[in-house]
Write a structure and sequence with these properties.
about 100 residues; mainly alpha; 4 helices
Length: about 100
């Protein structure tokens, strides 16, 4: 017990303890903030990977559309409902299932 009181009265121990508590809980970069930063970085890396894949896919589609005339015509018909002068377009919209 006497050793415990001598430890508490040691100024180096007190200053070190105060410093550790301050850094763990009260500092701007405390443990909770570090955890939030890590999770945010992880989320942003996932988004970066997604957008990189999407960019590659769009570049591939653009290259295919600019080089292949049949693919361009198919894309224009499906996405923008374009047609030739002697054609008619019928748009079929499926009914949604009704919940009772």
């Amino acid at each position: 017990m006497n050793r415990f009181f001598s430890l508490l009265s040691n100024k180096y121990f007190l200053v070190t303890s105060f410093f550790v508590v301050w850094m763990l809980f009260f500092d701007r970069n405390d443990l909770m903030s570090q955890y939030e930063y890590k999770s945010q970085v992880s989320k942003l890396e996932e988004e970066k990977e997604f957008y990189t894949k999407e960019t590659d896919r769009v570049k591939k589609d653009l290259e295919e559309l600019t080089t292949n005339r049949e693919r361009l015509e198919k894309f224009a018909r499906e996405k923008y409902l374009m047609k030739k002068d002697n054609e008619d377009i019928f748009v079929i919209i499926p009914k949604k299932a009704e919940e009772d």
